[in-house]
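thought: fold this chain, then report.
action: predict
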Amino acid sequence: MNPALQRRLIEAVATTVIEHADELTSLDQAIGDGDHGLNMRRGLQAVLADLDTISPKPLPEALRLAGTKLVMTIGGASGPLYGSFYLGLSKALADVGAAGEIDDDTFAAGLRAGLDAVVARGKAQLEDKTMVDALTPAMDALDAALADGRELGDALDAAAAAADEGKKATIPLIARKGRASYLGERSRDHQDPGATSSHLIVKALADVVNGRET
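observation:
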């Protein structure tokens, strides 16, 4: 992965989520602490502030630095979870050297490892009304598309569409993890903020690979 693309990927994920921070906060005010958007904005702004240091590193190291930054600055439950996603992806790609090429299947396997790290950290499963409800169908769709021989950009579009459906599918669910679980039945009929920010991340990746970033 060339340095320019690497920088665009890290930057696009950060800017996309930051642009939707108010929406994420509004969703979290309904069923959580009301700070998801604020916390994500703070953490990703910290990544952007160090982008000139982070982005030139080999991709595994860049992801490790970004993930560590998120753990240190986001706070709450989201910091460890989103940090774990970055760190899991970083660890999976650790064998790729500074000049190494990351093929599509390797990148997809890295994203799957990021999801596995989130599950290991938060112990959430499908239909618990969490970010896992967006990330799991996204990774399944990505793997299936690549197995069908589709290009990475097309496969990431399929992943983003699946994440979008996954986030919407959280609306009728009763939360079984996190702050929202304290509400019981009252958590129903609300879209999960973590699933929403996870969809934004996958969509940002798809937009960059397909040359649609602004």
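thought: worth noting. The chain has a mean pLDDT of 93.
final: tokens above.
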